[in-house]
Amino acid sequence: MRPSRRAADEMRAVSFERNVSKHAEGSCLVKFGDTHVLCTASLEDHMPAWLRGGSKGWVTAEYGMLPRATGDRMRREAATGKQGGRTQEIQRLIGRSLRAVVDLRALGERQITVDCDVLQADGGTRTAAITGGWIALHDCLTWMGERKMIDRDKVLKDHVAAVSCGIYKDALVADLDYVEDSAAQTDANFVMTGKGGLVEIQGTAEGEPFSPAQFLGLLELAQGSIAKLVALQKQAIA
User: Where does phosphate bind (predicted)?
Assistant: First the structure.
């Protein structure tokens, strides 16, 4: 029995609240159970220097956790003068995941930055950020389309969502919360498109190595969970 009493393939309650920011071109408050992430998508005039004149745009992401997103207060990374390695790794993952479903040439020479701020953490913050970040990006592109800046349907090629799956007490389970994540034998994050394409897989054995058969079991769990997440995204933007 999982600590949350969920079935092995049962996700936490997932919700998307759109238009939560007055100023951002796209915004979404995403909740995976007790993990809450505020995602905002901002259209920016400037482009990275290495992309200027290349006739294509860019989608990037920034990620951070508020000081009391966890049980004990964390120092703001700004107070230390630099970002931690975990933060850099996660925001690069979010950016790669979102770019996987964007036609950068159809976007034109514009940059969209998706900021993902963790308000409350209970495991799976990066997967929630990717899934909610897609909603914010969709709404930013819709905003641009309404102003005849782009054809949104040409720029945004597909959905993208993410989920964590792992091995907890020898059982394969989907959407790990913190209690499971902190004690998991194996922890894996899967990023997939709405059509089922794999964007990225991050998998680590914390103890005993996991077998190819177990990996395929985790992949199957992820496929089912991401199909549910994409269905929820479609409901949210309908």
Answer: 86, 124-126
CATH number for position 130: 3.30.230.70
Residue 6 lies in a domain: no
- Determine the Cα–Cα distance for residues 197 and 167; give it in Å rounded to an integer: 23
Q: Note whether residue 103 is domain-resident.
A: yes
Nearest by Cα to 175 from 117, 205, 131: 131
Annotated binding site: 86, 124-126
Sequence ranges of the binding site for phosphate:
86, 124-126
Query: Which domain, by its residues, includes 141?
Result: 14-237
pLDDT in tens, the chain (238 residues): 899 999 999 999 999 999 999 999 999 999 999 999 999 999 998 888 887 777 899 999 999 999 999 999 988 888 888 888 999 999 999 999 999 999 999 999 999 999 999 999 999 999 999 999 999 999 999 999 999 999 999 999 999 999 999 999 999 999 999 999 999 999 999 999 999 999 999 999 988 899 999 999 999 999 999 999 999 999 999 9
CA distances from 238 to 24, 25, 115, 125, 158 (A): 20, 18, 23, 25, 15
